[in-house]
User: Fold these one by one.
Assistant:
Number 1:
Amino acid sequence: MTRTTNPTQSAHNPMIANPNRMEPNERKQLLIEATIRCLKKYGFQGTSVRKICAEAGVSVGLINHHYSSKDDLIAQTYQQLSDSILQGLANACQTNRLSPREQLSAFIQQSFTQDFLDPQLIDVWITFWGATRSASAIQSVHDKSYLAYRHLLFQALSGLALENGWQGFNANLAAISLSALLDGLWLESGLNPHNFTPEQAIQMCEAWVTGLVAGAHRNYCEA
């Protein structure tokens, strides 16, 4: 599985590597990791360019060289985390020889692995969601990542409909429903981890898919 960036990584030690001697991509990664830690500590509104610089051990000029604004840097940070999560989900459900039903099970199981349920990851993700209303660059990343996330479900659900001969099945609407269930359980698991186990979360999502196959797919079929 592709691991996500952990917001609790220890702060960058400028004695380990001189940012001025790093490659551009290495400097960007340094700033992104510092941004994650700042978001965890201060939230979106409390995170500033100067705090990110202090966390990374670099000058303000380095951020200005690579990013147009704080929002731009945070948007790029959101993009990197989103890409990591999407890649992990894609790798899980696009394995060769999996049936559409098996792809959905793989997607569901991957969604509740230890890495995906990391409390620090969930905390930072909530910060990203909250920032979408005040920063258009972050909203744009959110819209694109959600579309890509939903598309993975759409592909598997479309395959399931084709395999079972469901005429007029609206796979997009079904994907929205399943993604809402997954997101809700994922978020609740992060906020109140004692309410249910990851295995029970998987059980609930599997029950949704089983119900779909048993007849609930008719609720998503268009005349």
Number 2:
Amino acid sequence: MISGRSLRGAVPWKSIARTRHADPDAPFSGAIAPAYDVAYDRSLVDILRALAEHDFVVVRDQTRRIAGIVTASDVAAEYGAVAGPFFLIGELDQRLRSVITRNFDLADIRHHCDPDGRRGIRSFDDLSIGDHQRLLQSNELWDRLGRPLNRKTCGVSPEVGAVAVSGRAVGQTDGRTASGQARV
């Protein structure tokens, strides 16, 4: 980089490894690789292919000065932070659907979630998380679960809209409740 605008290349780890493998005595300059630069106002979606290919992009500001770098690792971390809660909701939905499928029949489902038949529920796959909540709020269905769970500490949380055990949502990854019992 010269004066913040002229990009001559970059020295990523892959280039260092390749250069050192070919010649253990190679100078640092031998590891310089072409760098891909993008304008700061480009859409992230537009540069994903370049990120996948080059592992990083150099970002230029509105004056064409080099303003920073975005790595594939940066994008993956941000994606995980943004998408993580949606994955947890999906996992929670699958686990609740599994419990409901094993313990109730479609007649129960229709009675509680589609009493007038307007929704046309034909399978357990037609249920939403709101339906899971509706089903588990039924004392009759709750009792049919046959689980040794206290309704006061294990129930549907209106704030979270999920089954919680001792204050923890059933979607948590450690597989245990706060009291150490296995979750539903």
Number 3:
Amino acid sequence: MQQSLGHKDVSTTMIDTHVLTNGAHGVRSPVERTQEPMKYVLTLTTAFLLLLPATPPVFAQGAGIEWEILNQEGVELLRTGKYDRGVVVAQKALEVAESSVGPDHPDVGTSLNNLAFLYDTQGQYVQAEPFYKRALALKEKALGPDHPDVAMTLENMAVLYRATNRDEEAEALEQRATRIRAIQR
């Protein structure tokens, strides 16, 4: 094909083959492409500015390596049944998250949920519930009410409510979590 088109370069053959098979519609010369770069910059800038107020804040940077290590340690302590030590580590992870990313970051919500879960696992429901509620409020605000992390906290709270014979409240949370999980992403 290259020789029949008089080309030695594969990329040139690919461009010409595209033009031959698809027609020249929409194909612009290099000169045409260099004359309109500002049009594209303007279009992209306009699109960005229009989308900016409609998008929730993006939390590109997390609470850091110390927080991640503490969370991993807390999970391991939970797994091995060392709950008292797990609570201490989870409290430290919460402190690290709040000081490094502020009180409204999703990592703080994760720390709150983890701490609540540790209390919940030990049957310390009175201590667990406020942490679950705060985690839920934070995650809904930071991530949106239909985020999978919100569903996880709802499910955890439902387990606590079932354990404390608050079945109607548990049922409502479970139904909401199920609706969130059913959303196609």
